[in-house]
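Before drawing any conclusions, I looked closely at one protein, both as residues and as discrete backbone shape codes, quoted below without any editing:
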Amino acid sequence: MELRANRRSAEENKRRPLTLFLLSCLGLLLSSGTALANGYVFTPIDVPGATQTQPTGINNNGAIVGWYWDGSFQTHGFLDVNGSFTTLDVPGSVLTQALGINDQGLIVGGYQVAVQLSPSVTAFIFHGFVYNGSTYQTLDSTVTPETILIGINNSGKISGGDASIGGGSFMYDGSFHSISVPGRFSRWPAASTTRDR
């Protein structure tokens, strides 16, 4: 019995530093989260009647864009200005996602159309769009097969990527410029292009 008690305390001694380390990390996370949250108000963003709402972009004026599923699980884009929601659907699309917005209110994203290849085969193709508040303009990359626009800065530069598997990414400033990171499989821009360069 004495041998078992000694083994148990030796095993407990080995785990004790790990336990203390994990508890310390948890304490730091909790205190940091509280410190970072002070002064902020968290507001739920739910499109009325939606089964799921996903905000994806916000500008310096507080306008929020994103996408939502309606009761039939159809995907629509949205614009939220001070809690007032506007649905964004590119005409003729089967799916629209708003992903970025700049301070002038220009919205970018992607939409999908159904293309009947044969009586039994339908392809769904992604295109990028820019919306100025009244008109949707398709903007398709010359460097990727299918386009989705992710972000737009206040100078009008747009970041985007290939909506198909494997992806590639680009920046658009009147011309498309491929972005390539050596050794990376997926090269999507991780965030919207927010700097005015």
In short: The first strand starts at residue 52 and ends at 58. Residues 1-8, 190-197 have pLDDT under 50 and may be disordered. The chain has two domains: 1-42, 52-179. Helices lie at 2-37.
